[in-house]
Each structure stands twice: as structure tokens, then as C-alpha cells.
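S., here's the first fold you wanted:
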Amino acid sequence: MSIKKFQVTFDCADPERVARFWCEVLGYVVPSPPDGFDSWGDFDRSLPPERQGAGFVCGDPSGEGPRLYFQRVPEGKVVKNRVHLDVRVGTGLVGEERLAALKAESARLVALGAVEVQVLLADEYNESCIPMQDIEGNEFCID
């Protein structure tokens, strides 16, 4: 059985804004606009009015990580996500060193508009992690 490529899709109110936030979080990039267009804005303006601003995409510049797609939906976020991203910033670190790395990344993301929900300290089963929300309230963790 072969491994499948996949993308992660976010429902949101402002696809480009949320995509650019996640580019900053993950080091992702916005791909070049389609052939014949100088910018994504030019491409967007070529669409019918109801499709303008309806979607945006970003991806891992190395091509290894999943593509992220952001689609505009009319409803706001209502309940907790059933699936969320874990942004791995403390891999291989333990104790105070791990916690310091997590707190530093949390401070960087808060400056971008994220919200720190809480700090979960290590226990006998789990290492420390920090649940957060992106700029539209989608949950994710830094761990």
C-alpha cells in the first residue's frame, strides 16, 4: 500500500489572512500565482465576485509537509475542533528546557495574533504542551 499525500483544510472567514498567519507559524510559503497572473490579487480579481477571496493556499517550501488550504465559509466557529495541528517545537527537549522553548514559541505566536489557552505541565505520562488558538479561534498545540 502506498503512502498518500494529503492537505489540511481550514474553514474560516478570511482565507488569505489565516493562511498568512499559518505561513508565519510553520515557515510555509504562498505558491506563485497561476500562469498569466502577476499576483494572487490579480488572479482573485479575475474570478466571479462570489468566488473572490473564497480560498487561499500555502505549503511547505521543501514539498515534504502537507499543503494547507483555507476556504471561506459563512458560519463562524462554534465548537471545539475534532482534529487539530500539533506544532512540534520541543521535540527532543525535556523538563525546563522544553518548557522554555514552548513558552518562547507561544510568545512569538501571540505576537502574530494567536491566543495561549493554557500551559499544560509535564506529568508522569506526558511532556509539557501549550494549547493555543489561531487568529480565528481554531485550536492547535505547540509541543
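And the second, which I think is the more interesting of the pair:
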Amino acid sequence: MQIKWELVVFDAPDLEVESRFWAAVYGGTVEADDEWHTVSVDGRPKLAVQLAPDHQPPEWPDGTPQQIHLDLIVEDPQAAHDEVMALGARLLKPARDVTSKEGFQVYADPAGHPFCICW
């Protein structure tokens, strides 16, 4: 699998607050959609914020685990799917249309941590 770039995604109930915070931390800019904001630094995506209205903050390290996932953007989603499944991933949510120009599938690693393969 050839990963073009990696994007950490934070779930948040308030996209504006969260994305402005991280843009300020990184000295970046925000590209905003209704349910997704991308924070870019020097024109390159650094991280994203996904709308999660029911998000409950983690109580980590003394309570519930951290809540974060990785988006892996790939050239060949089928090859990436085959590779991660062979490594022990579980498919949690298949793409609506795996032949579409853009899409994603949600997986869990062997310990259950979620990540997405995106194209």
C-alpha cells in the first residue's frame, strides 16, 4: 500500500471552535464544509475536525480512552483494503460505492482503534 499522506481527525460538537483552536496552534488556515473542517499549514492538510454532535470528551488518562482516529489517503483502495485485512483489521463500515472517485471505508485495528482508508 502506498499512503499519499496521513490525516488525524478529531471529532467535535463545535467545528468552528475546534478548528480555529488547531489552526491557531499550528499557525494554519481552515477550509470549512458543513460537517468537516481541514486545517492546513503551508498549503498542506495537517489535521481535520469532523462534526460529532453527540461527542463526549474522553476522561483519559483516568477514565475512558482517548477518542481519535487516522485517515489514510491511498491511491489504490482495494489494495489497501486487502493489505490491512491481511494484517488483522476489521471492516466496520464499507463505502457506499467503492468505484466512486472519492470515498472512504472505516476499519478497526486489532485492538479496536478506528481508522479510515480514503481515496
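Why I say that: The mean pLDDT is 91. The CA atoms of residues 3 and 111 lie 21 Å apart.

Talk tomorrow,
H.
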